[in-house]
Amino acid sequence: MKRVYIPLFLFLLLILEGVATDFLPSDIVMGELLIVPHWLLVGLVFITLYYDRENTYYSVMYAIIFGLLVDVVYTGILGVYMFSYAAVVYLIHVLKKLLHVNLFVLLLMGIVGVGMSDLLIYISYTIVGIIDMFWKDYLFYRLLPTIGLNLVFFIILYPILMKRLKRWGSETNWK
Amino acid sequence: MSFFRNKKLLIFLIGFIVLVVLIGYSLRDRANVSIAEQMINDTVGWVQTIIHTPVDFVTNIFSNIDEFRNIYSENEILKEQLAQYKGLIYEVQELKEENNELRNNLTLTDSLRDYQPIQATVISRSPEQWLNEVVIDKGKQDGVNANMVVITAEGMVGKIQTANEFTSKVQLLTGFDQFNRISATISRQDEQDIFGMIEGYDDETKTLMFRIIEESDKDIKEGELIVSSGMGGVFPAGLIIGTVKEVVPDQYGLTRTALVEPSADMYEINQVMVLDRSLDVVEESDFIEEEEE
Predict the structure, then answer these.
(1) Smallest Cβ distance to B55: which of A19, A38, A78?
(2) Where is the chain membrane-spanning (chain B) (predicted)?
(3) What gap in Å lies between CA A115 and CA A118, rounded to an integer?
(4) Nearest Cα to B115, choosing from B237, B229, B240?
(5) CB neighbour burial string for B13-36, b if at least 16 within 10 angstroms, e if fewer
(6) Measured between beta carbons, which residues in chain B are less than 8 angstroms from residue A26?
(7) Residue B288 to residue A12: CA distance in whole angstroms
(8) Helix axes A80-96, A103-128, angle to 10 degrees
């Protein structure tokens, strides 16, 4: 039963992303800044760090499945989110072996993860020709505000998720 | 052959190939998305409808509190305007009746202006802000089809990009590019209308670009109203798009482009109408037959 909670939770995050802009004040949304809620990725980073074991790759699998769902539901250009989320989650999975997990490592991973995945999305959309944005504009109007907002989300989720995920992780039978 | 034994590299390469294939597949000009995608979209849309209601309720409370402050002054202005509108409504009704009578005399029953509205609610907005898409809770089952125009009370907001069975995706005006043109016009007296095309949205100036096709010597003033002309084939005529903000020459200096500020708010969209034009598009075969006669 515990195994079902995680996909359900990720699905909830996927749906909340769609109403995320309602929560932000309209001055921010209407202004120059392009803030993207990568809440699903935030959830995936939590799962990688606190739930997944060293030799299991559930987080990468979820990243592929839910990344594809984001592509289908919100963008219509398949593969972009799937690839960038999966690559970033895999990278974090590797980095996890080198670092002792605590709040600061989590936030560091958050910055690296959100930044890298958004950069990958920017690169793929630029290659495909959907967007045409100078890299400096991208950096200041999109990348930095996006990392900032998602860090706030990391801090909000931390007390809710950390203990639960650890418990679920230790209770699960890893085959 | 140590290259192929490196499993991780192989998986990465396969993943990359899958990425390219998927992007290539989704970038084709797809009027209809695959059944699997439609099912996912409808399922997610169904859950979103449930989630959207409480979220909307909470966010509305906050915006309502914000609005309380200037309700009094707004009310005064609105009362004044209402008095003016009463006369106007009467006049419009008279004109409509007269127009109908005249049309009946000419046996011109259908006009480019007629449409059937389909009421819809916005249930989510794409978190990817580059794409400017929202999802509404009406689909093919309710008569929504791709390329129909979507409006709010203030004016045009976009068009249907893909229609699923129970939900549909709307491409907002702010995401329009040169592939989504709208035939538009500035209405003038004595058949001096100015025709042109809305050719996409400019992110820097936050305006739509209205390129004037003909007679660019005519003066366009700031604040003039741009409406759809109905010549594009899908959109009905007479829908408000926006007001002229500035007129600039284009890059070759041959034509001029008016920068148009959309009159609808693209960020706080809740209730929309999808318009199904009553007059069918003239099929090419019909057109040839008529000419032969």
Answers:
(1) A19
(2) 9-27
(3) 5
(4) B237
(5) eebeeebeebbeebeeeeeebeee
(6) 267-268
(7) 54
(8) 150
The pLDDT of residue A17: 87
Distance from CA of A140 to the nearest CA of B (A): 15
Concatenating the DSSP letter of every residue in B4-22 gives HH-HHHHHHHHHHHHHHHH
A120–B contact, CB cutoff 8 A: no
Helices and strands (H, E) in chain A, number of each type: 8, 0
Residue B293 confidence class, pLDDT cut points 50, 70, 90: very low
Residue of A nearest to B41 (CA): A73
pLDDT of B34 reads: 80
DSSP calls for B268-283: S--EEEEEEESSPPPP
Distance, CA of B49 to CA of B26 (rounded, Å): 26
pLDDT digits (tens, 9 = 90+) for B229-278: 877 777 888 888 888 888 887 777 777 788 888 888 887 788 899 988 77
- Measured between its terminal Cα atoms, the distance across chain B in Å is 74
Instruction: State the average pLDDT over residues B56-65.
Output: 80
Rg (CA), chain A: 16
Determine the topology of domain B182-262 in CATH: Thrombin, subunit H (2.40.10)
Do B15 and A86 make contact, defined as CB atoms within 8 angstroms? yes
Nearest to B255 by CA among B201, B200, B197: B197
CA A26 distance to own-chain centroid: 24
Domain ranges of chain B: 182-262
The rounded radius of gyration (Å) of the Cα atoms in chain B is 23
Task: Note whether A15 contacts B: Cβ–Cβ < 8 A.
Answer: yes
Would you call B37 and A80 a contact, using CB atoms and an 8 Å cutoff?
no
How far apart are the C-alpha atoms of A148 and A12, rounded to whole Å? 22
Measure CB to CB from residue A75 to each of B21, B128, B268 and give the nearest one. B128
Looking at residue A97, its pLDDT comes to 86
DSSP classification of residue B200 = E
Residue in B with minimal Cα distance to A131: B130
Chain centroid to Cα A87, Å, comes to 11
pTM of this prediction? 0.81
